[in-house]
User: Fold this.
Amino acid sequence: MLLVARKDLRVERRAKIALGQVAPLALLILMVFAFALDANTSLLERGAGGLYWLAVLYGGTLLIQRSFDVETDDGNMDALRMSAIGMPSLFLGKALALFVQITVLELILGPGILLLYNVGVVDWALLFAAAIAGTLAFSVCGVLWGVMSAGLRVRATLLPLLLVPVLAPVLLAGSRAFETALGVRAGAGWTWAGLMFVIAAVHTALGLGAFGFLLEEG
Amino acid sequence: MLGANSGAKMTATPVTRVLGVSALAATALMAVLGLIVSPPDVIQGEAVRMLYVHVPSIWIAYGGFALTSISSVLFLRRSKRRADQGRHYDRLAGSAAEVGVVFTAITLITGMLWGKVTWGTYWQWDARLTTTVLLFVTYLGYLALRRLPAEPTVRSRRAAVMALISFVNVPIVHYSVDWWRTLHQKASLSVGRRPEITGEMYWTLLYSTLAVTILATWLIIHRYRVIRLEELRDEEGLEALIASRLNKDVGGH
Assistant:
């Protein structure tokens, strides 16, 4: 598992796609949201949680796409299939690498919303728990649905179509939990964070069971 | 039963013709019962008639998606043994999902029309409505995956896994009205619970479910056969292409 994760992160460190391209683009999206809402500070403050997770969704989708493009472009998928690495390790390794990359993206987006949308944090523990739970859910769902569209000619359009309905509950739960953590809305923030952990756990179980079928050829 | 008349390249057989005529007659009777015989509701008025299409449609959608999941399991079991086996289960999964998607769309459209009359708006961000749209989009994604240009076995295997995962949404949609506080009313008919409606309305709703089931069965059989014909066309087209290429090579040398 760690071997696969290390390989993905090494590829990423050399290419610097997450830090060099996706993170600046996601930050730009935070700014574009402000333009769309006419820089209305009270609206931005109320919607900060949702806008944050939308930016993560956009950036995360690009990272998931990239994670499988590097496997299919030079026939690496065949090499992985023939290697002695078990399917569960492959799934978990890819998910771990994605988790690290999306966390890096969020470490840039987090201060972004605090500064640009002028919001403060009232519950740091909830904020971190929700961020970790959401990122876990994004990572495991990303690997499961990323492999579904891997190697297909129209994967760039297919992946978001498959992924967004699955991630919609994560987006909803993440937004609600962040709103509580940012003091915008009193509510069951911890329940929403818990829901994201449950979604992550369910998709991990599904991924461990299905990854072998999805990776098989012909 | 589902085998197409491949020689004549048609999707109809005497059995499906009878089924088709039965579906047409059953639907016509359903219109009479729903529009004339059944009385208007005390609270909802004439809008209640939408129920006779709306409720059976979502049941057919659930049934279609369940059939897709069962067929997908059978396909995965067969294709694990031999890659070229279980194609008929894959076709059945695809045709049931197509019909399920069509009936989910009908559910959404009739629900929105009913909402405009009853709630005064086409759309409410209600748990039942939102989860139904997500279900609809998820299965649109499934159908998109099935249509992609790719090696058929790989594509079918991925679609089968997706079908199994997507079916998790069905109980979420159905029980959303019980799990969350929603504007949408509770289920009119459910197993193990007293029905919310009685009398002519109850019987009309039951009959409508039967009529729509006959219609959906007829559609699934035809879609299955169309998919089979499409596969035959692709196979024959490929063979013809190889033959013409071989002839050209022989002629050239």
